[in-house]
Amino acid sequence: MTLLQDKASSDSQAIAFDSIPVIDLVDIRSSDTNTRQVLANQVRDACINVGFFYVKNHGIPEDVISNALEMSKRFFDLPLESKMKIENKTTANFKGYAPLLSANNDSEGSGDLHEGLQFGWEEIDQSTGPRGEDIDGAMTGANVWPTEIPNFRETVLTYYHAAVQLGKLLFPIFALALELPEDFFEDKVGVQVLFVIDSTWFESSIKTRYSAAIMSLLHYPPQTGHVDDRVIGIGAHTDWECFTILWQEPGIQALQVLNTSNQWVNAPPTEGALVINLGDQFARWTNDVFKSTVHRAINRSGVRRYSVPLFFGTDYNVKLEPIPSCVSSSRPPKYEVITAGEYVKMRFQAAYGQK
């Protein structure tokens, strides 16, 4: 079936998912087109029907993740006055520290019970300064870092760049899933498309765009006793970018995903796997063929919980216009066209109560 036929079939059956699918990325670099298409078909099914999936064999070394986690714990252990020196409400691009209850992702909630540190693209070696408005548009501005923890910046940026590289590998698979050429996103998200000559992998030399990816280090204190659903770890929401690459602390259930029957489905940490969930940019780009699914997090474990999402979006100056394969006479465009940077900044302003 075609992409739109797949979507129409899914809508007509209206089967509510009750678990999150697991997709193995072991073949993501395969030189065989058919093998990559099989992987893309799995991704397409998950994107149309769930909007969430786990990935295993993702290629990010465990020590890179664990080192970033240790830095995250050390940062959130700092005194509040130290963290508030880099509060995100003092920066125009919302990078920096977000204290407990400072964000409210659910309009019916009373605040999100987590604290975070947000940062975006930056070279580890500091050979270049922050990117300008010609690249980052509405989200222009430098990262801000704590000065109290040695090697903090370098360690968390190492994980950031590893996650960005995974995201770049996923974009050609998403393109195949959308019946597009594998290089469709190359000029929109800084992807270097891999290609094969005589069984040898090469990278495209085109680098005309830049990755618009924001990472958050998050700390969720435990909620015990009676829990007011208006104040939970993070309220019901959709993510804003194309997709999120989420690491969750093992052994602690918190993430829940809302299915079409309005039931909350647990998405527990899975050993060796990351969570991928689609965001609003992909929903707008695909005219809602791909789902941006509502989710929330509630930490009732009795212990502190940590997670690290990377929100991977299109370049901030790219217009979110509907992809041709997602539009037809019976499925006209649903959204007004807006740049990615304008959309992300608008959602930040809504979440943090700023204009």
Automatic annotation (TrEMBL):
Domain Fe2OG dioxygenase: start-end pairs: 211-314
Pfam families given in the database record: 2OG-FeII_Oxy, DIOX_N
MF term (GO), any: oxidoreductase activity
Family according to the record: Belongs to the iron/ascorbate-dependent oxidoreductase family.
Organism domain of life: Eukaryota
Keyword Iron: yes
Entry keyword set: Iron, Metal-binding, Oxidoreductase
Keyword Transport: no
Transmembrane parts of this sequence: none
The protein, known as: Fe2OG dioxygenase domain-containing protein
Species for this entry: Amanita thiersii Skay4041
